[in-house]
């Protein structure tokens, strides 16, 4: 699902929202999530999951083309952990599909 798909879904489910209202709401929520992560906060949405920042230490990597050693600096990465309800929903869908 893309951002525009999410906007269309919101507008379809909530008839009191226009397409522009749904787009504004989606942008506001995603911006707030991004800003919280930049500040280092953990985000928890019950039943869905949590987002947190993990720190990766510097390491020595390899250039796949030449095989030469390359220093990879430390960095902050976003980590998502699905909630229990989401895991069970996805597992149930996988069981129905036979996968």
Describe the structure.
The protein has 99 residues and is of the alpha+beta class. 45% of the residues lie in helices and 27% in strands. It folds into two domains: 1-40; 42-99, Irregular (HU Protein, Chain A). Helix 1 packs across helix 2. It is extended. The mean pLDDT is 92.
Sum up the structure in keywords:
2 domains, alpha+beta, extended, 3-stranded antiparallel beta sheet, two-stranded antiparallel ribbon, HU Protein, Chain A, 3 helices, 5 strands, 45% helix, 99 residues
Short structural summary:
This protein folds into two domains: 40 residues; 58 residues, Irregular (HU Protein, Chain A), CATH 4.10.520.10. The chain is α+β, with helices and mostly antiparallel strands. It has three helices and five strands.
């Amino acid at each position: 699902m893309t951002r525009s798909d999410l906007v269309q879904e919101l507008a379809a489910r909530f008839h009191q929202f226009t397409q522009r209202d749904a787009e504004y709401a989606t942008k506001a929520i995603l911006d707030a999530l991004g800003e919280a992560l930049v500040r280092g906060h953990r985000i928890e949405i019950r039943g869905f999951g949590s987002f947190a920042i993990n720190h990766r230490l510097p390491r020595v990597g390899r250039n796949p083309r030449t095989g030469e050693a390359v220093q990879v600096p430390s960095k902050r990465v976003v980590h998502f952990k699905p909630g229990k309800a989401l895991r069970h929903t996805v597992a149930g869908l996988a069981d129905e599909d036979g996968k």
